[in-house]
Amino acid sequence: MDLDTAKQELEEFIPHVRNISDSSIKKMAGRDLVRFKQFKKQGIAVKFGRFSQKENTQIRKNVEEFLSITGIDSAEKLLFTSRYPEDKETINRLKAEHLFCEKLSEGIPRPWRLIYYRARKMFDPNNYKGRYTQEEIEKLKKYHALHGNDWKKISEMMSRSNLSVAMKYSEIKSAINYGPWSKEEIQKLMNAVEEVIRKRMETEDANSRSSSEKPDRDVLINREILCQKLPWTEIEAKVGTRYWRQCKQKWTTILTNKMNKGQQLYRGTKGLQAKINLIKRLYEMGVEDANEVNWEELSKTIGDVPRTYVQAKFYKLKVSCVPFWQKKTFSEIIDYLFEEKLPELEETL
């Protein structure tokens, strides 16, 4: 299949495909297009975003079945073959003979590349090693000075996952402030958000019209762009004194205050009522996984707030109220909140 045809056919399933590199499109045409068409016949849409518990279970099943078929003795060898140079040739031959790509993605309506990255994250024994020691932090700084953003190389040298070393370096690369936000920092954050949004919209304008047709106007920004899908690591770099997650949390707070004209939505009796409404609505939805929740719709149970605000409030609610929540499924957490916490909140109110 030629490149233009591949782009055209993939665009039905991945609207942003024309922003993807040509080499990636060629791989997707080979690995994904037939699968996407099969899912379409079954009425199943291609998914993006966080993986659901059901999808994680399917990945585990696919990996275990492939190990059973091939006799490869661990998921680490299968997914991190370069760590085992003495077995590399044999493992790669078995992958090719038994169609590893097809087997790994079986039953999961997502691009193969995303499934592969998710599997590597799930089965990487270096991914869950706890806090970094001061010695590790110094090593990370040293390795980054030598190898730049080659996270794969650095992760191998530190026996940590690619994601772990990249995120940790993002956290330590500058003097991070953990105290209250100053007025100057807040202004830097707002300027940074405005800059990345304007840049994005100017790019979209340039793609949709010639420069001579572009009107000289203020940008009207929709709620979705303000509330999500912002490049937080880029914003972090522009702010300079805060970690990206702090920037994201602070921006959510600023948006919430502006959207509600400074009213306190989550304190006193209003806060109690918001928690009650949140638990009831989640229970009524009857969903099995957090990824199936329409957080935008759910945010209306609290007020005119961004979806990230209501997600943060739900997270605090489950952590503070549900014992051993890490070992419970999403539906078990909701059932516990409804049966145990809701009566207590209603009585307090």
Automatic annotation (TrEMBL):
Pfam families: Myb_DNA-bind_6
Gene Ontology annotations for the cellular component aspect, listed alphabetically: nucleolus
Myb-like domain location: 124-172, 173-255
Domain HTH myb-type: 124-161
Gene Ontology BP terms: termination of RNA polymerase I transcription
GO molecular function, one term: chromatin binding
PROSITE patterns per record: HTH_MYB, MYB_LIKE
SMART domains (UniProt xref): SANT (SM00717)
Superkingdom: Eukaryota
InterPro entries listed in its UniProt record: Homeodomain-like_sf, Myb_dom, SANT/Myb, TTF1-like
PANTHER family, per database record: TRANSCRIPTION TERMINATION FACTOR 1 (PTHR46760:SF1)
Listed name of the protein: TTF1 factor
